[in-house]
Amino acid sequence: MDSSTPLSFDIFCNVIDNFGDIGVCWRLARQLAVEHGFAVRLWVDDLASFKPLCPEIRDVAATQRVAGVEIRPWSGDFAGVIPHDVVIEAFACRLPECFEAAMATRTPKPVWINLDYLSAEDWVDGCHGLPSPHPRLPLTKHFFFPGFSEKTGGLLRESDLERRRVDFLNDPEARNQFLERLGIPTADDALLRISLFSYQNLSLIPLLEAWTMGARPITCLASLTRNRGDLERFAGRPLSVGDTVRKGRLALHITPFVPQTDYDELLWSCDLNFVRGEDSFVRAQWAAKPMIWHIYPQDEDTHHIKLDAFLGRYCAGLPETATIPLRQFFRAWNGSGTMTTALWETCLGHLAELQRHALEWQKELIKQQDLCAKLVQFCRSRL
Ligand code: TRH
User: Fold this and answer.
1) Strand partners, 142
2) Helices 279-286 and 351-365, interaxial angle, to 10°?
3) Which atom of ligand 1 sits closest to the CA of residue 16?
4) Is there a contact between 178 and 269 (Cβ–Cβ < 8 Å)?
5) Whether this model's pTM surpasses 0.90
6) What is the pLDDT of residues 291-340, one digit of tens each?
7) Interval 209-235 mean pLDDT
8) pLDDT tens across 3-27, in order?
């Protein structure tokens, strides 16, 4: 197919929990619509989970259009809906049977994609793009795997992201205005600014305690999500957005959950970012700042294999003196090890090195084609 022919996309998003399912789908949908100019229809089964990421969403179960994307509640029947050129089921959510039947009668048949979860494991190289025929209908689904190597589907990254990041870094006024909007003091450059986005975590209170006693004052920007219980136990009281807890060298600010379009600025404004799941984890890497990842916990601890696979890639090229404590910190943060003040202080001692490394890692990763462009190419070759 000609590379200038416009395409149309259906994206199906079943929100299982948290913000990651809709976070990835919404980012991809916007990029397809805004950057590539394609018609995009995003089917979402939970608009309430969508709203914190995109405040323009109305709660009513009606069709709406935001950022050039047609957003449809995934409910009711699909009678009369003609599938688009490409149908994406995110994270193996099952498509409605009647929609699959409509896909089978369409000419040409839509390109059917299962957009899978991100993993740094080696097997992803061999599985990316594999076909899976439908058991009954004349349709073939393809597995599209995000990943860190050229052989995978790559990572989501808007084409203007790096320019926006550099502009923001070169404009302290923009950073100050952003922080002021969140109610964060901006004056003191001696302090360490840390963003915190995590699940509930046994290491969180020991880490916050370490921050109260550290050599450097710390401002922590924490949103109240699944770690609310830990934060409230640390504070000794219920917390809400706008609260500040001051203990020793630490000022813990409870910040609002910002719209997804602002989240990068939050990451860019900090010296260290604690992120989780998938999408915030990727954004922290594009932010080119040191980061700590709380991986989504899976049954039978399979997430530890995924974590080690990522660390194997991420730490290659980082001197061993920094790699050892960093790996130990990642493990402790993910439940296999103990979080101690000494471990935090050791990692902090390597901050400048970790900063250089985060930038080098980003510079390498950014050389690869982004996921959206790879997806479009993949689909065109099958239409
Ligand atoms: O919310 P998550 O834990 O999502 C997870 C993962 O995707 C996981 O793989 C999946 O299995 C599970 O959901 C169901 O973390 P993630 O992926 O980082 O998604 C969070 C989204 O929220 C991301 O798009 C960034 C966005 N965000 C904001 O828009 N504003 C904020 O203030 C914050 C903290 C996050």
Assistant:
1) 113, 131
2) 100
3) 14
4) yes
5) yes
6) 999 999 988 889 999 999 999 999 998 999 999 999 999 999 999 999 99
7) 96
8) 778 999 999 999 988 899 999 999 9
Q: Which atom number of ligand 1 is nearest to the Cα of residue 259?
A: 29
Of the candidates 234, 303, 225, which has an alpha carbon nearest to the alpha carbon of residue 263? Answer: 225
Tell me if residue 122 is catalytic. Answer: no
Q: What are 49's two structure tokens?
A: 């989970």
Distance of CA 176 to the CA centre of its chain: 24
101: Cα within 13 Å, side-chain hemisphere:
7
Calculate how far, in angstroms, residue 199's C-alpha sits from the geometric centre of ligand 1.
Answer: 10
Residue nearest to ligand 1 atom 8, measured at CA: 277
Nearest to 272 by CA among 348, 198, 173, 364: 348
DSSP codes of every residue in 146-205: --SSTTS------TTHHHHHHHHHT-HHHHHHHHHHTT-----TTSEEEEE--SS-TTHH
Which of the listed residues 13, 14, 18, 184 should we mutate to test ligand 1's pocket, taking the one with most ligand atoms within 8 A of CB?
A: 18
pLDDT, residue 163, reads 98
How far is the C-alpha of 248 from the C-alpha of 353, rounded, in Å?
A: 27
Nearest to 333 by CA among 264, 288, 273: 273
Decide if 257 contacts 23 (C-beta within 8 A).
no
Tokens of 192: 């360490």
Closest alpha carbon to 278 in 152, 120, 58, 104: 120
Q: What is the pLDDT of residue 376?
A: 98
Phi, psi at 183, each rounded to 5°: 80, 25
| CA-wise closest residue to 344 among 355, 332, 361 | 332
d(CA 41, CA 72): 7
275-281 contacts, C-beta under 8 A, 24 or more apart? 275/195, 275/197, 276/197, 276/198, 276/199, 277/18, 277/19, 277/20, 277/23, 278/20, 278/23, 278/24, 278/117, 278/118, 279/19, 279/20, 279/23, 279/24, 279/27, 279/156, 280/23, 280/197, 281/118
Q: Which is the catalytic residue, given 21, 85, 100, 370?
A: 21
Rounded distance from Cα 119 to ligand 1 centre (Å)? 15
